[in-house]
Specification:
about 150 residues, alpha+beta, five-stranded mixed beta sheet, about 25% strand
């Protein structure tokens, strides 16, 4: 895959991972209708909901998001999720290529607790993703209540 080593992608990834930066998501999109070149097409600080707004129903895209949630009344946890988005109007050949092209994306956006395969924006329900992150994180100080 080309484009994944672009300085702006690496800088956005570092920003999402940083505790000192407000940026909490990034979005990668294919640069053209054909080919495997990816480009950074968005970053933001509005979390999963804002990332979901930016997803295009006619494209395959890759999102990376920082999710903070309360463990209990005393602490919070920070986890990361990789979103592999295939919009419902994505062309068939692009859909087919995502299964193996996503491997290169996973190598660059490598620190994530869960992968979310999404074809509908409803797949990005924050409550459900937090529940999955809790399970992936091991210790659950919320007594299994999600």
């Amino acid at each position: 895959m080309s484009g994944l080593d672009a300085p702006e992608i690496l800088a956005a990834y570092d920003a999402v991972r940083s505790d000192k930066d407000a940026t909490n998501w990034l979005l990668l999109s294919y640069a053209g209708a054909v080919g495997d070149k990816l480009a950074l097409t968005g970053t933001g600080s509005g979390g999963l909901a804002e990332l979901a707004e930016k997803l295009d129903g006619a494209q395959a895209q890759y999102g990376y998001v920082r999710v903070e949630y309360a463990n209990d009344t005393e602490s919070t946890r920070v986890k990361f999720a990789l979103v592999i988005w295939i919009g419902e109007r994505t062309k068939v050949m692009r859909k087919a290529r995502v299964s193996f092209e996503s491997g290169a994306v996973k190598k660059v956006l490598s620190h994530h607790s869960i992968q979310v395969d999404a074809t509908d924006k409803g797949d990005l329900n924050e409550k459900e993703i937090v529940a999955r992150l809790r399970k992936a994180g091991g210790a659950d100080y919320n007594g299994g209540r999600g």
